[in-house]
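$ run holo --ligand "pyridoxal-5'-phosphate" --emit tokens
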Amino acid sequence: MPDPRGRVDLRSDTVTRPTVAMREAMAAAEVGDDGFGDDPTVRRLEAAFAELVGKDAGLFVPSGTMANQIALRALGRPGTVVLCGRRQHVVVREVAAAGTNTAVQLVTFDDDDGTVDPGELVRWQADAQQGWAPPSAIFVEDTHGEAGGRVWPLERLHEVAAIGLPVHLDGARLWNAAVASGASPAERAAPATLVTACLSKGLGAPVGSVMAASADLVALARLERKRLGGTMRQVGILAAAGLVALDRIDRLADDHVRARTLAEGAARRWPGSVDPELVDTNIVRVEIGDPAPLLAHLAAAGVLAVSGSATSVRFVTHADVDDADVERALAAIADGPEPT
Ligand SMILES: Cc1ncc(COP(=O)(O)O)c(C=O)c1O
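-- output --
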């Protein structure tokens, strides 16, 4: 669906707008009070997600951020540490919510390539036997946003699971990981005790994330959702869009091809700024120095991006970006400013 304001919006895959089919499904949705477990459309979405990722039960939640906070409360025991990558969303992009919502401390490990070295996690566990803070869970992010949408090698996820601690998989972009790796969502989620995926990113639903795990753990997560004020009422209206979103997973392959094309254009204009071979999915991070001049240049050409850090610009492809949009962005990149 083209941008109604004629822009090429590459700021995030969260800018997608619901499709006509989603809006129709929302208008027609059968609803009930989900606080009483009485919304049939929500039940269908939760069951569909649980089946897709090979778990017993599912839970619809308002956002990926709330899913991570629920996971911290459900898996992280007070007075313990949760082990995670240094630049994961739960660490850097949730306004340090772990400190106020939970009684656990996050311990972080290098995740430059998007993954964490399982050996380092094992080492922490061994040190914990000698009096270091005890770990209660491991959080991983796949695909890893700050690393540029990198996909975890599946064997590595299994190595993390083999450590024996509960694993939360922040799969906001689990679908992208599945499509890029050729493994099914269930195969990608198999190493995880608890898994989350977002419906409101590349799949285009307006709102919502889904979690899945064993029935007991989902019952606990449901309570934590309530504690955080995330219980909703006739929310089948949103779940209906989520069900349509689940039928769109295959389309993400197009986003990945377009992201690679953008990366190639950026690498031609600024050699060394990005390695297109490392663009696994739909996120492109271009190391350019001060992002402001490039962002202003792009905006003047009707192309929106965001700073990925103090020294990078981030482009994200999604359902509302087509080949013509990529061509327009490439033209703007081709006469972009010198790096600072
Ligand atoms: C990896 C990851 N986890 C969690 C979230 C949070 O999702 P939401 O924006 O729905 O709170 C995001 C959002 O971009 C994300 O990229």
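-- notes --
The CA atoms of residues 172 and 267 lie 27 Å apart.
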